[in-house]
Amino acid sequence: MTGPGLAPGRAFAALHRRGEPFVLPNAWDVASAVAIASAGAQAIATTSAGVAWSLGVPDGADFGADRAAAVIRRIAAAVTVPVSADIEAGYGESPGTVAATLTAVVRAGAVGVNIEDQRDQSSLFEPGEQAERLAAARAAAAGIPVWINARTDVFLCGAYSSTSAGVAAALRRAAQYAGAGADSLFVPGLTDLAAIAELAAGPLPVTVMAGPGAATVAELTTAGVVRISLGSAVAQAAYGLAARAATELFTTGTYDSSTNGFRYTSMNNALQTATVTGKEAPAR
Q1: Is-contact 35 81, C-beta < 8 A?
Q2: Burial of 20 by CB count in 10 Å (0-12 exposed, 13-18 middle, 19+ buried)?
Q3: Which listed residue, 94, 170, 191, 232, has the most CB atoms within 10 A of its CB?
Q4: pTM higher than 0.90 for the full model?
């Protein structure tokens, strides 16, 4: 399998340092990726929700590997930093489908992936099942350094009556996911710093999703995480701004909500630079 090469993958892996986590804002299209990169991001990650919304479909609506790879190809061609792909649960239940999805996004330019263990809105894959799916993804990488961020939704699914029970379940999954070749454990929905620290001392480095009301980067650093992402928060903020600006226009006839936006010339110039340096990445 061909992909972005060894250097970007190794550079992305090197960003994951306990005690010195990096913040990974999530993009959903080329323009958002370029804007985030221009702010100084060390890497770009996609958000499946933001990508789906930008294409007019709800998150989790069987988005598919081909469309995910197409988005990654455009983003990877437009930025010079490593790109990680949110591939949800791999767009299929079988290990072979997960492997094919990983292959598609890596060929498109991704050097990392998120693979979640949520089967549907109400259930998770059994730990052994998910381990097989992760092992298939690792085998598909075929020696290419692809960072596999194994997402567990034990804290989102509400299956456990207490945080401590959820942590115990997450630790059991982390041990199996580590054995399957995962590089880190992603625990969206967990905000308790003591619980995060307990997981961070476990079998895999821990990555978390933050946002308004969550612990600060400094606090999460002390808890031992290696990566902090924002999920769909930036996309939600952007669409929220669109709604507020429209509401203000319709009600008061003023334009204050649009203040401090990305300058027209800045975005145009950034995209022009991206077009010149990256061009459209060819399918591999």
Answers
A1: no
A2: exposed
A3: 170
A4: yes
Range of the domain at 72: 6-277
Angle at 102 between CA 271 and CA 168, to 5 degrees: 110
Cα dihedral sign, 121-126-132-138 = positive
The CATH number given to whatever domain includes residue 19 is: 3.20.20.60
State the Cα–Cα distance between residues 231 and 115, nearest whole angstrom.
Answer: 14
Question: Does residue 45 fall inside a structural domain?
Answer: yes
Is 186 contained in some domain?
Answer: yes
In this structure, is residue 284 part of a structural domain?
no
Residue whose tokens read 């998150």: 59
CB 85 within 8 A of CB 112: yes
Give per-residue pLDDT as tens, 196-248: 999 999 999 999 999 888 999 999 999 999 999 999 999 999 999 999 999 99
Total structural domains in the chain? 1
Give the pLDDT score at 61: 66
